[in-house]
Every structure is written in structure tokens, then in C-alpha cells.
Design brief:
With 92 residues, this protein is mainly alpha-helical. It has one domain. The chain is 79% helix and 0% strand. Helix 1 runs antiparallel to helix 2. It is rod-shaped and about 75 Å long. The two termini are 20 Å apart.
């Protein structure tokens, strides 16, 4: 019962990370690498500022999601290494 739950949690973390990364990518595709020097581009400048603010806000969530997947992957690998060692009677 433990192994399926472990894999479900790992998969949930991976899906969460994928959703966060896809959302960030969809925001960044509308981001322009321009500098607006003229006052006639205030509308575009405001739109870009909103996009940058959203990307900046989502960045900590993306970092947390990445670390959750890394930690859960290490846990899964450690579980299987421990299981192999237990089956070989190296550890009790």
C-alpha cells in the first residue's frame, strides 16, 4: 500500500511542477525584450510591467515545486535502495 501512495505523491508533485512551468512559459512568451524610451509606448510598457510582475510572483512557486520533485525523487530512490539492501539481508 505504501509504494502506490509514494508514486502518486511523486506524480502529483511532477504534475504540479509541470503546470507551474507551463504557466510561466505562457506568460514569458508575451514578454518582449525591448526598452520603451518614448512616452508614446506607455500602454506597451504597462503591459510588459504586468507580465514581469506575474513572472516574478510565480518564480518562488516554481522553485518550491522543483525542490519538492527533487526531494521526492531522492526519497523514491532511497526507498528502492533500502528495499534492495533489505532483500539481500544487508540491512534488517
Amino acid at each position: 500500500m505504501f509504494v502506490p501512495v509514494m508514486w502518486i505523491i511523486w506524480a502529483a508533485f511532477v504534475v504540479f511542477m509541470a503546470v507551474v512551468y507551463l504557466y510561466r512559459a505562457s506568460l514569458q512568451k508575451n514578454e518582449e525584450d525591448q526598452i520603451f524610451l518614448d512616452d508614446s509606448f506607455q500602454q506597451e510598457k504597462a503591459e510588459q510591467a504586468i507580465i514581469v510582475a506575474k513572472v516574478t510572483r510565480i518564480e518562488p512557486v516554481a522553485r518550491i515545486a522543483r525542490w519538492l520533485v527533487i526531494l521526492m525523487t531522492i526519497f523514491v530512490i532511497a526507498y528502492y535502495v533500502w528495499d534492495i539492501l533489505r532483500q539481500l539481508h544487508i540491512v534488517q
